[in-house]
Amino acid sequence: MDDASMIGLMGRVSGTVGPGLVGEVIVRVRGGAEHFLAYPADGTERIQPGTVVMVMEYQPPRTVYVTAAYGT
């Protein structure tokens, strides 16, 4: 999976994402759902489990930077 194909994908937070935390999100990719370590894209946002997020940056192999996808 390359960087460009991950950016813009939607996922759901399964472990709180926030400053000083290593969160977790589940993203539908490659025909299934995969878990990724997650950090807030802006460095300050706190995102609770169950929140739908968008991948803003991807760092292989398993790290994403996300933002809450308000209005989805």
Task: Please describe the topology of this protein.
Layout: H1 3-6, E1 10-15, E2 23-29, E3 32-40, E4 52-59, E5 63-68
Parallel strand pairs: 3-5
Antiparallel strand pairs: 1-2, 1-4, 2-3, 4-5
Quick tags:
single chain, 72 residues, mainly beta, OB fold (Dihydrolipoamide Acetyltransferase, E2P), five-stranded mixed β-barrel, 6% helix, globular
Structural notes for this entry:
The protein is built from one helix and five strands, in the order H-E-E-E-E-E. By secondary structure, the protein is mainly beta. The protein has a single domain (3-68), classed as Beta Barrel (OB fold (Dihydrolipoamide Acetyltransferase, E2P)), CATH 2.40.50. The longest helix is centred in the first third of the chain and has 4 residues, at 3-6. The N and C termini lie far apart (25 Å).
